[in-house]
Structure formats: structure tokens, C-alpha cells
UniProtKB/TrEMBL annotation:
Descriptive protein name: Xylulose kinase
Pfam family, one: FGGY_N
CDD domains given in the database record: ASKHA_NBD_FGGY_EcXK-like (cd07808)
Taxonomic source organism: Peribacillus simplex
HAMAP family, per database record: XylB (MF_02220)
Residues where substrate binds: M82, H83
Amino acid sequence: MNPTLLVGIDIGTQGAKAVVIDDMGHVVSSADVSYSFESPQPGWCEQSPSLWWEAVIACLHRLWKNGVDPADIRAVGATGQMHSLVILDERNQPIRPAILWNDGRTLKECGEIEEIIGADRLFTTTRNPILPGFTAPKLLWLKNNEPHQYSRIKKVLMPKDYLVHELTGEFSADVTDASGTCLLDVQKREWAWDIIKDLGFSSEWFPPVSESQEVVGTIGETASRVTGLPIGIPVVAGAGDNAAAALGNGIITERKGSISIGTSGTVFVPLNELPDLARDQAGTLHLFCHCLPGMWHAMGTTLSAGMSLRWLRDTFEKENYDDLLDGVEQVEAGADGLLFFPYLNGERSPLNNPRAKGVFFGLTYGHHRKSMARAVIEGVCYSLRDVLDMMEKAGIEVADWTVTGGAIKNPIWTKVLADVYQQHLQVHVEREGPAYGVSILAGLGNGVWKAVTDLPMLDQVANRITCNRENQHVYDAQFARYQSIAQAMNPLF
């Protein structure tokens, strides 16, 4: 009997990844391909969708080369970076490079949207503030600044929706990614057609919204020819990267939370119902649909998490992260008083300031590469604790934390995060990443598992990262400095 295999594909900011799992949730094989993004102007981030498709094709062929038989694949799921705007013309071709989630050009358009819709009405419907990284202000920016390109729009997609279209020829959206557009009625889990109309956007641009595990198409003949995937196997709607990663790590009940440190950093907490928060109380807290029907989640994001360490690696001209981090554990907690603010491309939560800039605060002659590297790691962890602080003020509590993302490959990240949070953390090494989570959605959509309670991987034991209580006073003091200095600097940016 042939094995039952499922494929999950992740369109990340710095590369694509494909994961194959079996019906017990074990990873059979994986492959990844790196690419980069462009910054035409300071604060801008763009990427060509063709990069994603070429990288996905390369990933899949590497899987087949690694010994995976494509004939054993039963279903496919796609995930990827949220908020990034993909616009297609009448020939279903990208009109221009995608404007990415960490692009900060749309502050003016955010104000325009609040004027047109009304800030309270917008929040009541979408349950989110309008932030520069979200999709709606990107569309308005195109209308204001590239009217010729805007006039050619026939479809508006997220990155993973673009991949689904390339695989199946179908246009689709899912509730998690659609939540991040600021154009979805998050409570009703459907497009906010009145807001779309009032902003002057065409309703025909937006594909039907599905639950994440719903089958929206099958692999087409052209896609089969270039990828090797069998014609006719089902493809599910998929999910945004954070929701997919949360599912893969078993973050599917209240009071469980995940902290992701990838290119960006995210704090994610599932909710059985949307909290009754006033707009001012919610601040920059994101309230989105989860990738499971009838569930939502709270989230906050720091824009430059792992990307901050990558910047430092490149600045010091190190070949790899091991070279950059050599000796960092010898630096005591608190980095000898040095603080790093990871606002290299603006900041979202909780500052909401696309003009913010990265800062080293407290540099002396005594600081060096090792103390700067530790300060960067600690600074990202402080920014994530800042997000947690925002959630706690909104009444959202978490008892168990799981950490995920590419940064967990180096133990210094998880040790510092555990100490800054003063929480024990869980790590599921095999189940790491959005691609794993969306492969589960593919299995749920194709009937490999009937319900989430049937998932065998949820019984797997996680690795435990213990916090060092002796570091609490150092990190509490440094975090208090971090918050006060960040608030003082914010108006100056």
C-alpha cells in the first residue's frame, strides 16, 4: 500500500520552503530555496511574485530528488507572509512587484482610510486598527501614486493565494490572510463589502473567502508539468504563516500561546471568541481569524526580529550566524547595559511608527561585537515582551508558551527569550514552521484526519527550555528601561 503524504509550501520573505509529512505527522522530507527582497526607497520593501513560483518549483524538484515519490502526495496546502499585496491584470499576470508586509510607505493612506470610513466604524467591523503594513492602505497608495497600475487591477491576492492560483488556476482567499487586509468582517468571517465599496475598490477584485482547510481547487495540467505534482490532487485554501505555524505547534486552545522569531517576531494567542475591546484599549493588537473554524486569535508583531541579527551579521561581514554569535554566551545578561531597539524598518506593535529607526543605546568603549550581538537578541526579546505587555493590558492571559521560527535553531535565542519572559518555553523541533502547519490543513481538507482531535502529532512531547530565575532582576530592569526609552524616542522619529 502506498504511503499517504501531504505537502505544505511556505512563501516566506527570505525564501520558500516545502515540507512533506506522513499521516502520523512525521516529516518525511523538506527543501528550501532562498531569495531576497528589494528596497527601492528607504522604508519600502518589494518582491517579484515570479521569485516565489520559481522557488516553489525548485523546492518541489528537490523533494523528488530526495526520494519523495510525487505519486504518493494526497493533498497540498500553501501558506506565506501576510499583508503583502499581489495585483494581477486581465491576463492573470502580476502588474508590479508585490508590496510586502514590512513596507512602511502608507502612513498617509492609513489616515485617509480613517477619514473615509471612520476609525470607530473601521475597528468595529475589522476588529483591527489600520496599520501601514496592512493591505488596504497599499491599494489606496497605488490609487494615489500609480494610477496607471491601479487601473489595470483585476484581482487582489495574498502571496499564498497567488501560489494557489499558479497551482490550480483558481482564485481564492482564506479567513486568516483576509483578516490582515483590514477589509474583512472578522466576526462574520467574510469580506466587509461596504468598506470595500466606500474605499472605491471593486468587489470583483476579491476572491471568495474560505476556511483554511477547505479544498479550493486541484493541481492543473500546466502546474503538474512544471512541478511534478500529480494532476487532480486537491489544494486547500491555506492560511497566513502565523496561524499555520500555530496549528503545527498545537496552539489551538485558549491560554496557549506561541512566540515566533523569524524575519519578523510575533506573539500569537488563540481565542474562542473575539474580546469586547474599545478601539483605544486594543491599541495595535491584531484580532484575526484562526485557521480553524469558529476560532480567532490575538497577535502582535515586531517587524525586524531575525532580520535584525541578519543585518548585524552582514554588517560585521561574518560568513554565518555561528561566527557572529561565537562567544556571545560569555556576555552576561543585560549586555553590559547596552540596549538595542530593532526598528530597522519602522515598528508595528506597539509603537505603530513606520518612521522609527534602529538604535543602539548606551554604547561605550567597552562594548564589542559579542555584546552588540547579545544586545540585538535581547532587544528583539524585549520587543516581544512589549507585545505581551500589550496583550496582558487587554486582559488576554497565557499559561503555556511555545517558541517557533528559524531563530530556534540557535539555543541562545530561546535561552534569552525564556529569561526575558521569565517563562518556561516549549519547542517542537520537527513541527517547526508554517509549512508544517499548512500540510496539516491539507490533510484535514482531504479527510486524512476528520478533526483536529484526531491529529497524532499533538501527542508528541516537546523540548523544554527553562528560564533562569537569577536573571529576572536584570531583565526586568532592562525591559523597564527599554519601554521608557522607546516611548521617549517615538515622537522624535
